[in-house]
Amino acid sequence: MQRIYEPENLLEAEVLIGMLASEGIDVHLAGRDLMGGVGELPMQGLLGLAVADEQADYARELIAAYNSAQPLPGDEPENLPGILIC
Asked: Could you tell me which residue ranges the DUF2007 domain spans (predicted)?
């Protein structure tokens, strides 16, 4: 297994796990149990997504595409151009 990405928080980790799983990639989230120690442990580097060696390159490509995604034109309200409201 290779650690391929360090999500900023648990929410981002869960979103990425779901995305990768939908593409048939088995993902292990390392550090989930350490989140209760934030404050006594450093906040950065606790979480890490790990996948099988043979799926690592494809998983990295998917995460890079996710990180570079932009809202589609017309998805934002007229009074807040450039902002996507969920």
From this structure: 1-65
